[in-house]
Design a protein that fits this description.
This protein is α/β, with parallel strands linked by helices. Helices cover 44% and strands 15% of the residues. The strands form three sheets. A seven-stranded mixed β-sheet has the order 2-1-3-4-5-6-7, with helices on both faces. A six-stranded parallel β-sheet has the order 8-11-12-13-14-15. It has a two-stranded antiparallel ribbon with strand order 9-10. Helix 2 crosses helix 8 and helix 11 runs parallel beside helix 12.
Length: 488
């Protein structure tokens, strides 16, 4: 009888990422659950060892003993930006799990951003096969071939060892009909653990969904090893159906739509809003978008009607020179207009900010800080430029990378190539910009309280009074930054 028992896992261990562990807002491995659902639909027996809350890779031994799988599949969640960062803590954990499964006689298959970029390394660390790029259909074809002792070398999207050397088959086109996939295998997840963690840390429960795959834009630092530059979308009808199911099953308070770009297809957002209103679905959600896609007030208004409360945009820099160098394809006026439109419709705009791009000088940094202070987004996420294989940016700086090419965890924030300032400067800049941002938020709150004192509540008063903490704290961080500048 053909072997058909598959144990899925992924390589993201929340405990290995101190910043995210402290934040306490984990999402189930959505990409993994999609793959498991497809295999189960095709009559394979599937189970999941979810590493999210595990103490270490050695815990997989118990799952291997319990399920005795024929196939061990490390299938990372390609929708989560944390896995796209290819953190070394997670890579080493994946290697350990591969070796343990291999020792038990499993066929070991890996599908991840990191493995796509470093397939030779994974093959040398215990993987029998690495899936290159989007994985569901490749995994199904591969396991079927192995079941029947067929040669898998004609299957697109694979890497494996052949006569002592790593080889790759032809690339696989991305899947266009996303509605053809079954919904994720949510039942494999211990949802109670996720819920409780969210409630303990955030006071509400959020789940993740995805409506699209890929991104057609050309930002030259953005790696797209899984879904590439093609953009394919689920139908708004199927997305709303899933939203209803998840609300019924798990009663979540909030959704993170983890698309790279939400609602790019013309008319999609408006139809989604219409269906959400028709079905009387009341769920708050956040998305990722672009400033140039939020210039149309009708689009922003439809997002607000459908429940969108927070939009993260890649503002990146307040310097047009740096945006152009990144091939970002947006302008500073577009960032301002998108922010103003979102605020006008009750949506909280949040900014991804990136420092340290090649060619950035002090004037560019000051322009970015000025933009943040002027627009006062709801949240900011600050990083330094992070080179990943397959990007124009990586090719530009790889001669400076030497042995270090990845961070250990998401809070490392180390600049890994030569630039205008040393890595210590950017770490201090990160601290200063955050304090400066909170100081300006507090000042704005104080002005509002003074203008309308009878509208103030405990929260707005507390925020306004925090100006007396953030003002001296900002000054201290600025003095430290100035000292680093003078030492150069």
């Amino acid at each position: 009888m053909p072997r058909n028992n598959i144990l899925f896992t992924h390589s993201y261990f929340l405990r290995f990422d101190p910043k995210q562990w402290a934040l306490g807002q984990p999402y189930p491995p959505l990409g993994t659950l999609y793959a498991a659902a497809l295999m189960r639909k095709n009559w394979f027996k599937v189970s999941l060892f979810d590493t999210m809350f595990a103490h270490g890779p050695e815990e997989v031994e118990a799952a291997l003993e319990e399920h005795r799988p024929d196939f061990f599949v490390v299938y990372d969640d390609g929708f989560n930006y944390l896995t796209k960062m290819c953190l070394t803590n997670m890579r080493e954990a994946a290697f350990s799990m591969c070796k343990m499964a291999k020792a038990r006689g499993c066929k070991v298959i890996v599908c991840s951003s990191d493995a796509t970029d470093r397939y030779e390394k994974y093959l040398s660390e215990g993987a029998d096969f690495v899936i290159i790029g989007e994985g569901e259909i490749t995994l199904l074809q591969l396991v079927r071939a192995l079941q029947h002792n067929e040669d898998p070398s004609a299957i697109p999207g694979l890497a494996f060892m052949d006569n002592g050397r790593a080889v790759k088959t032809a690339g696989r086109p991305v899947l266009k009909d996303l509605d053809s996939l079954p919904l994720p295998a949510w039942d494999l997840v211990d949802m109670a653990r996720y819920r409780q963690t969210w409630l303990d840390h955030a006071g509400y429960f959020s789940l993740n969904m995805v409506t699209t795959r890929g991104c057609p834009f050309k930002c030259n630092w953005c790696a797209k090893p899984i879904y590439g530059n093609r953009y394919n979308s689920r139908s708004p009808e199927q997305v709303v159906d899933e939203l209803k199911l998840l609300r019924g099953w798990f009663n979540m308070d909030h959704i993170w739509f983890s698309d790279d770009i939400f609602g790019l297809k013309p008319g999609w957002v408006q139809e989604f809003a219409r269906l959400v209103e028709k079905e009387k679905i009341k769920v708050r959600f956040k998305i990722q978008s672009r400033a140039d896609l939020l210039q149309d007030e009708g689009v922003v208004e439809a997002l607000a009607r459908s429940g969108c409360e927070n939009v993260w945009i890649g503002a990146e820099s307040g310097s047009q020179k740096i945006l152009d160098a990144m091939d970002k394809g947006i302008t500073i006026p577009q960032i301002f207009k998108a922010t103003e439109l979102m605020k006008a419709h009750g949506i909280k705009p949040s900014f991804f900010i990136q420092f340290g791009y090649p060619g950035e000088v002090k004037e560019d940094i000051e322009q970015t800080i000025s933009m943040i202070n002027a627009l006062l987004p709801f949240e900011i996420g600050i990083s330094v430029s992070y080179p990943l294989p397959g990007t124009v940016f990586y090719e530009r700086v790889k001669a400076d990378l030497k042995t270090k090419t990845n961070w250990t965890d998401s809070d490392e924030m180390a600049l890994m190539f030569r630039n205008s300032f040393p890595p210590s400067y950017y770490k201090q800049l990160h601290r200063y910009v955050h304090q400066n941002y909170h100081q300006h938020l507090a000042q704005n709150s104080l002005v509002q309280v003074l203008k309308k004192p009878f509208h103030a509540n405990a929260g707005s008063l507390r925020k306004a009074l925090s100006v007396f903490y953030h003002t001296p704290a900002t000054l201290i961080e600025k003095v430290k930054l100035n000292r680093l500048e003078k030492a150069l």
